[in-house]
Amino acid sequence: MAKLKWGMIGGGEGSQIGPAHRLGAQADGLFEFVAGALDHRPDAGRAYAQRLGVAADRAYGDWQEMLAGEKDRDDRIDLVTVATPNATHFEITKAFLEAGFNVLCEKPMTMTVEEGEEIVRVAGKSGKVMAVNYAYSAYPMVRQARAMVRAGEIGKVRLVVSNFSHGHHADAGDADNPRVRWRYDPVMAGVSGQFADCGIHAMHMASFICDDEVASLSADFASTIASRTLEDDAMVNFRMSGGTVGRLWTSSVAIGRQHGFEIQIFGETGGLKWHAEQPNQLIYTPLGGRTQIMEKGEGGLHEDAQRLSRVAIAHPEGFPLAVANIYCDLADAIRGETRDGLPGAAAGVRSMAAVHTAVASAKDGGAWVDARPPMFR
Ligand code: NAI
Question: How many Å from the N-terminal Cα to the C-terminal Cα in the chain?
Fold first, then answer.
């Protein structure tokens, strides 16, 4: 089968997420990296793309040049990944969807709920695949957890507790470093810092595994480093449509915590626990029974977990392969096969609604607010 043609915007040299996309997109030989506008500095972006093997005429200086250069080519890209800072996601994603391209956008999908709803509409009208890179949802043992919940193996879910708390922005003396600063600058990051950056991964994961949506929430935000306009720590309580109680903590000043993303799901007849730093294992405790460690690649896992396991049992699979799983599902979706695990524009706008309602709740002393986007009420 011919490889699909892939291009990328953002993710330039030294960026945090760029390498994970390049590894993920190319891991299975499904995509060929043929075009890019990789850096906010046009010359640096052109030069880096060429060093990565992109032909000179498709190593673009900015996304507008890339759109103009790609849209009328016979061999134009089948998929574009948007991996720029948050404030640019909406206009780039919308422009590429309107020009008939499939898009994978980094989270958060947009800055506002209105923009998110607009992306849902534009994606629907275009008929193109629109995905958001909630890559943690593509780890095999996360898929196993979701399949177990769907199969009723832990009964009705009563409670989900998630946190995504690290300590990598805890140095007040480094708060002005440009790589760190934009995440707490409303012009670049939007209305929320840490919750929009990491908390929405945890909230998406809760919805994804429980197969349910966040209906309402109450939030407490704090900027523990005084120079920050936006929060670097948040506690969010939520309720899902089906009645599940949710608790979520996210922080970037939790010194000693590294990646710090974990989730526990407590059902009527069992509990599950997954931790991103040990992604190959899912911990399962049946009611009244012993705790068991389920391993990626072992026999008897649900089909979706088996499908997305790549190497033999006990061989570690990490974040780039979770991203690769997103690209596998994207390749299938572009070729017309439905993959219900692929996070789409609806997941993107739900996150934006959660971000904005959490900000409103935090400003209102933690008042409970409807967290659904207006289009889904
Ligand atoms: P970064 O600051 O490390 O890198 C951003 C890159 O985009 C740089 O190479 C920069 O030159 C380039 N860039 C900026 N504006 C551009 C423009 N207009 N056109 C072309 N290139 C441009 O940022 P990082 O951490 O890589 O984050 C990028 C996005 O990825 C953010 O939206 C972030 O929230 C998301 N992200 C997602 C993760 C996930 O797990 N899904 C993990 C880390 C980041």
Answer: 42
337-348 confidence digits (pLDDT tens) = 988 899 999 999
Place of tokens 């810092």: 193
Which ligand 1 atom sits nearest the alpha carbon of residue 17?
26
Q: Is the CB of 10 under 6 A from ligand 1?
A: yes
Q: How far apart are CA 257 and CA 239, in angstroms?
A: 27
Q: Best of 8, 21, 39 to mutate for ligand 1, by most ligand atoms within 8 A of CB?
A: 39
Among 9, 21, 40, 80, residue to substitute to test ligand 1 (most atoms within 8 Å of Cβ) = 40
For position 284, what pLDDT does the model report? Answer: 98
Contact 217, 367 (CB under 8 A): no
Helix axes 89-98, 113-126, angle to 10 degrees: 20
**Domains of the chain: residue spans and CATH:** 4-135 (3.40.50.720), 137-312+345-363 (3.30.360.10)
85 lines ligand 1 (CB under 6 A): yes
Query: 301-335, pLDDT tens digit by residue?
Result: 999 999 999 888 989 889 999 999 999 999 999 99
pLDDT-based confidence at 371, cuts 50/70/90?
A: very high
